[in-house]
Amino acid sequence: MKGLRVLQGLVLLCILLIPIVIIVFLKTFGNNKYDIPVLFENGVEDPFMECSMAENQQHYIPDFVLTSQDGIEMGREEMKGKITIVDFFFTSCPSICPIMSTEMERVDDAFRNQDQVQIFSISIDPEYDTPEVLKDYAERHRATLGKWFFLTGDKQLIYNLARCGFILPTLDGNGVPDDFVHSDKFVLVDELGRIRGYYSGTNREDVDKLILETKILLHGNE
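Predicted structure:
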């Protein structure tokens, strides 16, 4: 009989402890946040001494001005206060660019009604990719007006921007499409100009992750 009372007491104690366990669990895990890192908080390594950047400081996208498919000047100033998704491409690219642009269509569509999100697709073949060529390319990919900008400009500025601003490998093909080298990455940049992530523009799952993390940043700014 004594053993039965002890067992009953233990059962009652467990029942009483259940709400406490639930409360502790909710307090510990209920407010979990999806953490999107800020990259290059301690600066960027520059082993080849190609870039002039502050050491041991947060890296920000530097100032730049390029020209859009509509002949409008766009650059770092227009990124302020907005989330910007950036890629580097060229319209005559025979390999990964068509896939990247098709995936970027999905990104464009996902944020079609979000004024705080914009896309910069920057040409690494500006001598061929004039605003007129880019406008035709934008129309073929159904780019949302005022959201998805295709940019061209000074070649040296663009290559320095890719390598030293967005930290992406880029090599000039000197007009030969097969000789150009550029990254397949989409770059997520927050409203302060900090890089928050890199995503393969040729991988659907990676682009899905970009869309998700852009939404998280967007709602975090509301």
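Summary: The chain has two domains: 1-32, 65-220.
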